[in-house]
TrEMBL record:
Species name: Aerosticca soli
Keywords: 2Fe-2S, Electron transport, Iron, Iron-sulfur, Metal-binding, Transport
Record-annotated membrane-spanning stretches: none
Gene3D superfamilies for the chain: BFD-like [2Fe-2S]-binding domain
Family membership: Belongs to the Bfd family.
Protein name as annotated: Bacterioferritin-associated ferredoxin
PANTHER family assigned: BACTERIOFERRITIN-ASSOCIATED FERREDOXIN
């Protein structure tokens, strides 16, 4: 889904930017150009970035599996 129409940035592009190391909105803007024109997408882009960051921070396995191993 397109998040930023001005720069043709999709939610996948945002997730990819996070996978490649973007950790802030400024870094996302540098990598994708998202929200660097009219700015109308800013709220949606930040929400998508936050969601991608949360998924990146989540452990690959539930902690309980590590505790019982
Ligand atoms: S829609 Fe993203 S900068 Fe315009």
């Amino acid at each position: 889904m397109y998040i930023c129409l001005c720069r043709a940035v999709t939610d996948r592009d945002i997730r990819r930017a996070v996978d490649e190391g973007a950790r802030s909105f400024a870094q996302l803007q540098e990598r994708t150009g998202c929200s660097t024109c009219c700015g109308c997408c800013s709220a949606d882009a930040r929400a998508c970035l936050d969601e991608a960051l949360e998924q990146t921070a989540a452990p690959a396995f539930p902690a309980v599996l590590w505790a019982s191993a």
